[in-house]
Structure formats: structure tokens, C-alpha cells
Amino acid sequence: MPEKLRFSILGCGVIGPVHAEAIASLPDAELISVVDIHPEKAQKLAGQYGATPYTQLQHMLDKEPVDVVIICAPSGLHGELACQVMRSGRHVIVEKPMEITREAIDEMLQVQQATGVKLAVISQHRFDKASLQVHNLVEEKAFGRLVLGNAIVPWSRSQEYYDSGDWRGTWKLDGGGVLMNQSIHSIDLLQWLMGPVKSVFGYTDTLVHRMETEDVAVAVLRFANGALGTIAAATGAYPGVTTRIEIFGDKGSAIIENDNLSFLHLARDDKEAISSYGVSPQEQNKVEGKSSTSQNPAALSASSHALQIADMIRAIREDGTPLVDGYEGRHPVEIILGIYESARTKKEVMLL
Ligand SMILES: NC(=O)c1ccc[n+]([C@@H]2O[C@H](COP(=O)([O-])OP(=O)(O)OC[C@H]3O[C@@H](n4cnc5c(N)ncnc54)[C@H](O)[C@@H]3O)[C@@H](O)[C@H]2O)c1
User: Fold this and answer.
1) DSSP of 248-266, one letter per residue?
2) pTM for this model (two decimals)
3) Cβ-Cβ contacts under 8 Å for 100 (sequence gap 6 or more)
4) Range 115-142 burial, b when 16+ CB lie within 10 A, else e
5) CA-proximal residue: ligand 1, atom 41 (nearest)
6) Is 284 a residue whose pLDDT tops 60?
7) From atom 21 of ligand 1, which residue's Cα is the shortest distance away?
8) Are the beta carbons of 84 and 57 closer than 8 angstroms?
9) Is the bond leading into 281 cis (omega within 30 degrees of zero)?
10) Are 289 and 163 in contact (CB under 8 A)?
11) Could you tell which of 37, 182, 184, 292 is best to mutate to test the pocket of ligand 1, judged by most ligand atoms within 8 Å of the CB?
């Protein structure tokens, strides 16, 4: 295996350059090529990093000694492109969502099994310090019995954002709206922390934007462990407020706001018993504000992506499993597809 793993990025739009920056920050990774159907986009990104530009994936795979390809194309193309990469014997990282249909995800998992390469799905917020800390506490059962978990995503996207790519806000290539595109990060964190979702009931609507898919959604969830939960999300919530992930159990609570742990209180740390009415608001931790992707999709730092790419490098070198493999990548998509089905049928949808 080479000292530096050789990467290629397919799709040089908004997120492709973030991956390029992440790869450049890792000592054992190098970007050797990029692919985009628009030659000027491929040339621009390739020029910034000394990589070779291509306009067709197969030409790149035939010519370059690449180890890992990162797919940053529109969501409904992830499966087809990732399978092409895996069939060439290369490892693949796909941006979220893994894909937008169960059939495409099944095929990706089958091809991954047949070829034996590694497949990772981007869910970079699982690598944030706050998410890892809360996940470790869940594993230690520090929250006691989990009772309630909420994901709240009151974001803002302009009509220009949806008009900036002909795939945005379409069922065919975006696979949905605020749930499938923006909230999938929070939905993945919620199910990672609270455990598998057993059933969903949801409402969706399109209230602000000219687009096919939803720009507002709410859902109630039943988790397999008996806890209940909610998802509330919008991209028409001007000016865009921070995401909140809330985890409540009978022995503790945690709130992650804007990727920071803004509240944590565990019974095991209490020196004396708290009042029967719980902790007063004055005792609660103060929340720190910070600019985020709630308002601007391009306001993305590459550091969490770098941690996830480093996790893929570890999996390849140790012949292990990436933290978010294809089976993990499937969970949030199943929840979202369940909410869409519920919104259509006006019925609770069982997922387990
Ligand atoms: N993890 C995150 O935080 C995050 C943030 C933004 C986007 N994304 C995901 O990344 C993906 C891309 O989103 P974006 O906002 O960068 O989109 P974009 O439209 O800005 O960029 C997509 C690029 O892919 C290129 N492309 C399309 N089909 C291609 C093909 N067959 N071969 C090569 N290139 C092709 C397009 O020309 C375009 O340059 C989506 O799946 C999105 O959900 C993830």
C-alpha cells in the first residue's frame, strides 16, 4: 500500500472543494485527480491542488492509479457512480444521502460485498466532538432510560439556492427536500444516539419555495427502545437558526446546538439530589452562538470531513470497517423515506 493514499473527487460543485481541502490537511492522503462533466469546474479544482482533471469517470479510472474515489455528484447519481468505482476495484466514499431509493442502496451494498472494497457514507457530524461525547455517554448508559429525542432544523435557503442546480429540490435527483438534503445529518445523529427507529408518522409541505419537494416537515418517531421523538425541519425559516439535537433520559439530558454541546446534565455527577421539579433555567449551561450552515450552505468547515476521510484511511490500512459504512448510511434514508410514505398515505409507517 502506498505511503499516501491516492484520492480522486467526482463532482467539483459546492462540496467537492471541501473534500479537496480536507484531503490536503491529511498527511497520508493526496488528491491526484478530479472529475466533473463540466471541464471548467474540473480544471479549476485540479489547478488548485495539482491534480489531473477529467470529464468522465471511466477515463479517470482507466488511467489513474487511484485508491479511493469520493462521489460528490447530485444525490440520485450516487449509486450508479459508486458501483462503477467499486467494480473497478477502488474504495469509495459517497456524500450524503447514500442514495435516494432503497433499490439503489441495495445494489450498492451488493456490489460492495461482491468486490470486497470499502464503502463509506459521509455523515461528518458523527465526528464532531460533541456528537462523539454524547455517543460515548449513551454507550455508558449515562442517560439512564432514554425517553425523548428531538432533531430541530429551522434553516433558511433562498430560491436562488434551489435554482442554482437543476437537480436541487427535485424528486429524481435530490430525492426530497429539507429532509433528504439538509436534515439528514441531524436525523442520522438522532438515530445514532437514540437507537433504531421503529415507526414514523409525518407531515410535509412546500410553503415558501418554487420546488417539487418539501421545504417544511415534521414527524413523530417511536424508537425500538420505547423512547419517543420528533423531527421538525424547514428551509424557509428566515434567517436560519441553529440545529438542535436533544437527548433526554431519566438519568440525564444533552443538547447539541450547532455542533457544540450546549447542555449536559447527568444524575451521576450530582453532588446532592436535585429538586422534584428538576434543574432551574439559571443553572443550565449558556449556549454559545456561531455562524453555521443554517443560513449558508457554503459555510462548511473541512475539519469534520477530514476526520471522516481519516477514518476511511484507517479502515483501508487495517482492513477494518469505516465508522459510517453502507449499512449505517442506509438508516437515515430509511427514516426519511418512511416519513415521505407516511405524509402520502396519512398513516404511521413501520420501519422495523
Ligand atoms: N456533507 C455535507 O455537508 C454536504 C454539503 C453539500 C452537499 N452535499 C452532498 O454532495 C452532493 C453534491 O452536492 P453539491 O451541493 O456539491 O452539488 P453541486 O451541484 O454544487 O455539484 C455537483 C457537481 O457534480 C457534477 N456532476 C454531475 N453529474 C456528474 C457526473 N455524472 N460525473 C461527474 N460530475 C458530475 C456537476 O457538474 C457539479 O459540478 C449531494 O449529494 C449533496 O447532498 C453534502
Assistant:
1) EETTEEEEEETTEEEEEEE
2) 0.95
3) 75, 76, 78, 173, 174, 175, 176, 180, 333
4) bebbbbbbbbbbbbebbeebeebbeeeb
5) 75
6) no
7) 13
8) yes
9) no
10) no
11) 37
